[in-house]
Write a structure and sequence with these properties.
By secondary structure, this protein is mainly α. Helices cover 79% and strands 0% of the residues. It has helices at residues 4-7, 11-31, 33-43, 54-71, 73-83, 85-105, 109-123, 126-137, 143-176, 183-202, 224-252, 256-277, 279-287, 289-318, 324-336, 338-351, 358-382, 388-415, 422-451, 455-473, 487-490. The longest helix is centred in the first third of the chain and has 34 residues, at 143-176. It starts with a helix and ends with a helix. 57% of the residues are buried.
């Protein structure tokens, strides 16, 4: 890639590539739920047979996954700061592979939800440690690029999941019949475990000649035993909370949206608990106005990501996109755009990093264009147009801007945070952001069931992104002077 041939392959390039693999399998595992549920709804199989409100229930399953995912965001970053980013990253991928395999083995709605929540709990610790590990081991001028390149795994995972899962179901139908929905979980879970072993072997920092590594630094140390113990304890508590809310809500006859709102309320309650118990560490992350605005900005970002990530195949199919595989092909163009958008956004972000509000201004432009493109796509399909080529182009272009803005925002948040707190900050950012992911699948599904069309959910998506633009414009970025140097930084 950029200047790679000139400088040769560096250790941080290897780290970017390995974390790309981590993102790839993480997103295949989580995005698989949407196409599988779409298949189950259409064919009325398993626990979706004779259900009156299938999209609402399917969306609720997605929201329960993201509730677990959301709750582990800050603990994941906190554990990374304590036991090492690398240890938590690798534990996350192993956990995801096992949870995915078990989802395919079990039967029944409750067991399905249980292992989707467990998947969310395991994958919830990945994000903050991945971002922090890249920031620690990359040269300052290449942090945005590194974050963007690693995140292309998101795009490839989204595309592979959107296209590959329907294909795997079709492949399995002749020998598994209505249990064909299980087959993708076996395949993706196995691939995830293979990647976990690769990360265990190769995701290691490299000593720089003349630079003494700080073995106590979270970017260097890797305490797997303690990391797994505390990760298990946090997950056990949150699993009981999430499943408890689900069982009590169902017994009380609450709607899917009501359950999602209750799950969302766990976010401020967890922040309050953390503030009371770890005030000295949490207060700076909440008192920084610019960081807080970025936390809120990521709510519509996650809403958009999982509105499309969960329901895109169903959206395209409902608006005349053909059979399941044909609709999946059109929908995949949105995720495919990230292969260009993520590294391009990261590179542009680095180019303007030294300018006053440089990253902020780029982020505002990308968000503004994306907002317009969301409304254009909504208007096109709501007027009855369904040309698959046109829809594919629209989804690809909007995806280009959507994925490009994310490494810009991540690098901006990193600029605003001291080195020792990056893991906790990214954990806090994604904790708040996952409010959007928790609400998006179920609210969108309920609105779809009540209106009979995906038109209103699309318009709601655009309105939320417009609100995100307002938040970005209120940010005034100022870099934090770092007091410690990572090996990548010390050598330059």
């Amino acid at each position: 890639m950029w200047k790679l041939r000139k400088e040769g392959l560096q250790r941080y390039h290897t780290i970017w590539g390995l974390l790309f693999l981590g993102w790839f399998v993480s997103y295949i595992d989580r995005v698989a739920t949407g196409p599988i549920i779409t298949y189950m709804i259409e064919n009325e199989v398993s626990f979706f047979a004779d259900v009156a409100n299938p999209h609402a229930i399917g969306g609720l399953i997605g929201s329960l996954f993201f509730a677990g995912f959301m709750l582990m965001q800050f603990p994941g970053g906190y554990l990374g700061d304590r036991f090492g980013y690398r240890a938590i990253i690798i534990l996350s991928i192993f956990w995801a592979g096992i949870a995915t395999l078990l989802t395919g083995i079990v039967g029944g709605l409750i067991a399905f939800i249980l292992f989707r929540v467990l998947l969310g709990l395991g994958e919830g610790v990945f994000y903050s440690n991945d971002r922090s590990y890249i920031a620690y081991h990359s040269p300052p001028k290449k942090v945005g690029l590194g974050m963007g390149i690693a995140l292309t795994g998101v795009s490839l995972g989204l595309t592979a999941g959107t296209l590959g899962v329907p294909y795997l179901i079709t492949l399995a139908e002749p020998f598994m019949n209505h249990n064909a929905w299980r087959f993708p979980f076996f395949v993706t879970g196995g691939i995830t475990l293979i990647v976990a072993f690769i990360l265990l072997k190769y995701l290691k920092p490299k000593a720089t000649p003349g630079v003494a590594l700080d073995s106590s630094s979270p970017g260097i140390k890797a305490q797997f035993g303690k990391g797994f113990l505390y990760m298990t304890l946090y997950s056990a508590v949150f699993l009981v909370i999430v499943m408890g809310i689900y069982f009590v809500s169902v017994k009380l006859g609450l709607s899917s949206i009501a359950i999602a709102i209750i799950l969302t309320a766990l976010c401020p309650l967890l922040i309050l608990y953390l503030y009371i118990t770890k005030k000295s560490e949490i207060k700076p992350l909440l008192a920084n106005k610019n960081l807080f605005l970025l936390y809120l900005f990521f709510i519509p970002i996650m809403w958009h990501l999982w509105f499309y990530g969960f329901w895109s195949v169903s959206i395209v199919k409902d608006f005349g996109g053909g059979a399941l595989m044909a609709a999946a092909l059109v929908a995949s163009f949105n995720g495919l755009a990230g292969l260009i958008g993520f590294p391009l956004g990261g590179k542009i972000s680095d180019l303007v990093s030294d300018r006053p509000n440089g990253r902020r201004n780029v982020l505002a432009v990308l968000t503004g264009v994306l907002t317009i493109l969301i409304f254009v796509f909504a208007a096109y399909v709501m007027m009855g147009h369904n040309n698959p080529v046109v829809m594919s182009i629209m989804l690809f272009v909007s995806g280009l801007f959507f994925f490009a803005l994310q490494p810009v925002a991540h690098a901006l948040a990193s600029d605003l945070t001291p080195e020792k707190s990056k893991g906790s900050m990214f954990g806090m950012l994604n904790l708040v952001a996952e409010i959007g992911a928790v609400l998006s699948p179920v609210v969108s599904g309920v609105v779809r069931d009540s209106t009979g069309s995906w038109g209103m959910p699309l318009m709601l998506d655009g309105a939320l992104m417009a609100a995100g633009l307002v938040l970005v414009l209120a940010v005034s970025s100022q870099k934090v002077r770092q007091t410690t140097l990572s090996p990548a930084k010390a050598g330059r």
